[in-house]
Design goal:
The complex is a heterodimer. The mean pLDDT of chain A is 97. In chain A, helix 14 (339-357) runs antiparallel to helix 15 and helix 14 (339-357) packs parallel to helix 16. In chain A, the strands form 2 sheets. In chain A, strands 6-5-9-7-8 form a 5-stranded mixed β-sheet, with no helix packed on it. Chain A has a 4-stranded parallel β-sheet with strand order 3-2-1-4, sandwiched between helices. Chain A has helices at residues 20-25, 31-36, 40-50, 62-67, 93-99, 101-115, 129-144, 168-175, 204-216, 218-222, 255-261, 295-300, 319-333, 339-357, 362-375, 383-408; strands at residues 78-83, 119-124, 153-158, 199-203, 232-239, 245-250, 271-275, 284-285, 309-314. By secondary structure, chain A is α/β, with parallel strands linked by helices. In chain B, strand 2 and strand 3 (112-117) form a beta hairpin. Chain B has 2 domains: 5-59, no CATH class; 73-166, Glutaredoxin. Chain B has helices at residues 5-12, 22-33, 38-48, 52-59, 81-99, 141-152, 169-176, 192-202; strands spanning 73-78, 105-106, 112-117, 129-131, 134-136. Chain B is α+β, with helices and mostly antiparallel strands. In chain B, helix 2 runs antiparallel to helix 7 (169-176). Classes of the chains: A alpha/beta, B alpha+beta.
Chain lengths: 426, 205
């Protein structure tokens, strides 16, 4: 029996899978019909019972989040879908929306009913023109078919290139027409979110998981996964592997199992380091091939499941170069609101550049760790925290490689060997 | 081309509060002018009844809003870690050399501009190049050169996962303003990497 459990991806191989005709043919828009006939609290309970947790990185229980929305408060409520997929390595929501935008729309209808919202927004990143076309066309078709517009409005909002807008409160500021900068919490979005109204912000994959839960039941969903990490999810495998791609599997599968399916590390090479959930999650090495990829398993091994973005690097890759590049990314994307992140990421880059080009010193490693200590947990949002993850974890596992740069006075690696077009050894 | 204020009003009406329309309006200005002009900022400020400084503050925060003209085909090479390691750095260096421009530069004929970009959510297709924010997957130095050469000659190759032809920067900006260009049904529903897990499960693996 296959270790994979395609649910979200089940019909992606149909050439017209993104159309309303295909979605309806495959059983789409039956779950929303069913849910709209249910008491909203029963829908929330069902999502709670399913064990579904946020697929955007934090893993917060989705049903519980919905339950935080105050009821009978006479205020407008909003659902906001976070489709600002930008975490390095993360590439699951984008292909999902290209292949099947209607499952998200149906999920929005169900979620709006559950939290008593009349207006939902999908905040999609702006650097994916064709995905924007597909989602916009799907929304128009859902209006024409009467799935939207009868009490539930859905607006597509298109971003403009800011990683920080994937942070939920920065996303809300951006959606309100401001620079995307995180807000101080509390108040949390459930109390004062979009336009200071009770708001649920959920990831694309979380909301898209809901129609199948409604149709198949909480018990079905519970039957997949591990004790505290229920259900199936999209694992995105990229980098130095023979066959990169999307793998929808029960939570708790291991990298070793996924690599077996993907034909392993590219021929003639071996695994050096990898991220379990994007660049903001501490690096793993070949010691972690059998770590269960669920929320608890990854945390127990010292990292985070994050977005399940498995970026694989083989032995040709210089870890200092990799970490420098991620750090440059965080410096560029820091919104500037909080000093530790804004200034700290700038200094991290300066020190890492010296280390990478061989002009650093061993004392720079301690300086890096001290800076990380002063960034971690000291800002409004987790961007700065994320910036420290690759640094502290790489020094933990590859201190010798940093020192080799210092001793050599240069990077000991040949970047050509890491490229895809350098090819496999045999 | 001049800004269509009626169309801008329809964009504003998508939202419960007008200020939320600032981002699609800025994309719309780029669809008309190719970049965010002072005139565009003033028009948005008038329509939303906010200060021009507030519009500028937003326009300068987001990297997709350009304060000077980009090329008809704006090419972004992903040089975030994974793509960089897999070949993005080599592609970016080769394109700079080939086009004779630096990062954020535009060719003298105004056809192609070049920018190094951050992770574009297509890591399973690394190395990735974007042109007018359409996907060019699994690129090599040669294929990326062919892309920009085609763009300069007015016949760029079609995106890997996108419509049957590469639209211009202005046309793409209109899509990002939420306007329908009728091309949503063109192109593949998914690439090979997207379908890998599904294919394997159907083979019982």
């Amino acid at each position: 029996m296959s270790k994979l459990t395609p649910v979200l991806s089940a019909h992606w191989d149909q050439p017209d899978s993104f159309t309303i005709e295909a979605y309806t043919r495959n059983g789409g828009y039956t779950a929303s019909k069913k849910a709209l006939a249910m008491d909203p609290d029963a829908v929330i309970q069902m999502v709670k019972d399913s064990g579904l947790r946020g697929r955007g990185g934090a893993g917060f229980p989705t049903g519980m989040k919905w339950g935080f929305i105050p009821q009978g408060d006479d205020k407008d409520h909003y659902l906001v879908v976070n489709a600002d997929e930008s975490e390095p390595g993360t590439c699951k929501d984008t292909p999902l929306l290209m292949a099947n935008p209607h499952v998200l729309i149906e999920g929005c209808i169900i979620a709006c009913h559950a939290i008593r919202a009349k207006h939902a927004f999908i905040y999609i990143r702006g650097e994916v023109t064709h995905v924007v076309r597909r989602v916009n066309a799907a929304i128009a078709d859902a209006y024409k078919a009467g799935h939207l517009g009868n009490g539930i409005e859905l607006t597509l909002h298109i971003g403009a290139g800011a990683y920080i807008c994937g942070e939920e409160t920065a996303l809300l500021d951006s959606l309100e027409g401001f620079r995307g900068q995180p807000r101080l919490r509390p108040p949390f979005p459930a109390i004062a979110g979009l336009y200071a109204r009770p708001t649920v912000v959920n990831n694309v994959e979380s909301i898209s998981a809901v129609p199948a839960i409604i149709n198949n039941g909480a018990e079905w969903y519970q039957s997949m996964g591990t004790e505290k990490s229920k259900g199936a999810t999209l694992y995105s495998l990229s980098g130095h592997v023979n066959n990169p791609g999307q793998f929808e599997a029960p939570l708790g599968i291991t990298l070793r199992e996924i690599l077996e399916l993907a034909g392993g590390i590219r021929n003639g090479h071996k695994l050096k380091f990898w991220t379990p959930g994007g660049s903001s999650t501490p690096l793993f090495t070949d010691e972690h091939l059998d770590t269960p990829l669920d929320y608890e398993g990854v945390a127990a091994a010292g990292s985070m499941l994050g977005t399940k973005a498995l970026q694989i690097f083989d032995e040709t890759t210089c870890v200092v170069r990799a970490v420098l590049r991620w750090t440059e990314f965080y410096k560029h994307e820091s919104c500037g609101k909080c000093t530790p992140c804004r200034e700290g990421t700038w200094w991290l880059v300066q020190i890492l550049r010296d280390l990478e080009n061989g002009t650093g010193t061993e004392a720079d490693l301690e300086k890096l760790l001290d800076l990380c200590d002063n960034i971690m947990g000291r800002s409004f949002c987790a961007l700065g925290d994320g910036a420290t993850s690759p640094i502290t974890s790489s020094i933990k596992y590859f201190r010798d490689e940093y020192i080799a740069h210092v001793t050599n006075g240069a990077c000991p690696f040949d970047p050509v060997k890491s490229t895809l077009f350098a090819g496999a050894v045999n | 081309m001049t800004l269509d204020r009626d169309l801008m009003q329809t964009i504003i009406k998508r939202y419960p509060r007008s200020r939320s329309a600032i981002m699609p309006l800025l994309h719309y200005v780029q669809s008309v002018s190719g970049y965010v002009t002072n005139d565009g900022i003033e028009t948005i400020s008038e329509l939303l009844e906010i200060e021009t400084a507030e519009v500028s503050a937003v326009a300068t925060f987001y990297t997709q809003y350009k304060r000077k003209p980009v090329g008809e085909y704006h090419v972004g090479v992903c040089t975030n870690t994974l793509c960089a390691v897999m070949g993005g750095d080599a592609i970016f260096a080769a394109l700079k050399d080939h086009l004779g421009v630096e990062n954020d530069g535009v060719t003298a004929d105004g056809k192609v501009s070049l920018e190094h970009i951050e992770c574009n959510a297509a890591c399973d297709y690394a190395p990735v190049v974007m042109a007018n924010w359409e996907f060019y997957d699994n690129q090599t130095v040669e294929s990326a050169k062919a892309l920009v050469d085609g763009a300069r000659a007015g016949n760029p190759p079609a995106p890997t996962r996108g419509p049957n032809r590469l639209v211009t920067y202005k046309e793409a900006s209109a899509v990002l303003a939420g306007l329908d260009d009728g091309l949503a049904r063109e192109g593949v529903q998914a690439g090979e990497a997207t379908l890998l897990g599904l294919k394997l499960s159907k083979e019982g693996k």
